[in-house]
């Protein structure tokens, strides 16, 4: 690690500070003060719909309820602050990807439409989140990746020269450009969405932890909300609720952001359009060029297994602020950045952060409403939630208000979810899968041929 990387103005915090927090330094300045917290929910409250969680899923649900049925009394309660979880810490890919490959083709049209819908809402509501729909470039950087990706891409395959005209990734042998993806500033998106729902009459409470969710009632630290319908939109933090510890597993993904890069570096890298970029390894790597000229790079699934440092999943589905910071994983991301974009190898890393995302047992997100109890939930996006959460929220709003549409007939609606195994099987399975993905990449790098281990990883995460 260079001396520049150890400077004290690098933002790394176990409480989730990220580039997307819009805080230029840990200390507020006169020109950028933090927003005052919203009120805490206290006493006995009533609503038609109570949403638990002020991330994307909860806020999109509230948004579509408010615009289609403005007479409904909608209350949102959040344990921390708006966008505290994955909605405020992700890599900013607004894509049409779906984690369960068995359902991806069926889900694709609705997700592609939702990418456009998110762009339309940001324009209509004046949400300045740097939304730029320039596509997703997936690059093969080894012969094995190229063989696998070319087989999947068919006529959509781009040769090395075509990829280089878009972004110059070191060692790129080819790739695929998916048009249905936008780069966004996720923090501004979630905060702007919160402002939009409040303008439309939704009541939003922060620092209001839900202790228990039962039909007709959300029990809080300092009160209770009674509602006909209760939407659980808690994603990785679901495991803290009574009886829900095995519904999903919280898997950690970590990210780094560089300083704004000078024009000479961008001239060497290319990347003039703000398309998002990923590579075709089995372990997950994702990047975007921000509107102010930084590279944000993140990863999860296998980085924690490199050299035995860190772990993507912690025993007992634990979620702790200290898990947001894994120096060995940050170092691995820094090396990956230098490998993919050598021109940026000496760039100072100004932000390092992380957080948990939710992974269901079958790798398949769900949208569910039990009309008998009035209990609803959505989530389990496996890191592909920026777009899927908006589709889920819109679908939940339709289910709640009794409207049928193409969205309410999608295969993730009402799907039964298998629970994760008890410990220690859960810990062994999740982290064993991460090590398997890392081993598949290592074998492919060594042999130059697609690994059978990769086929096993794909089978485990297909959603079948």
Question: Explain this structure to me?
Answer:
The structure is a single chain. This protein has helices at residues 56-68, 101-125, 143-153, 160-166, 186-199, 263-269, 327-340, 385-401, 425-447, 452-460, and strands spanning 11-12, 43-52, 74-77, 93-95, 136-140, 157-159, 174-178, 181-183, 203-205, 210-214, 217-220, 223-232, 248-258, 276-279, 284-289, 295-300, 349-360, 366-370, 375-379. With 464 residues, it is an alpha/beta fold. It starts with 10 loop residues before the first strand and ends with a helix. Helix 1 (56-68) crosses helix 8, helix 2 packs across helix 8 (385-401) and helix 9 packs antiparallel against helix 10. Strand 18 and strand 19 (375-379) form a beta hairpin. The chain has a 9-stranded mixed sheet with strand order 1-17-13-16-15-14-5-7-6. Strands 2, 3, 9, 10, 11, 12, 18 and 19 form an 8-stranded mixed sheet that branches. Strands 4-8 form a two-stranded antiparallel sheet. The longest helix has 25 residues, at 101-125.
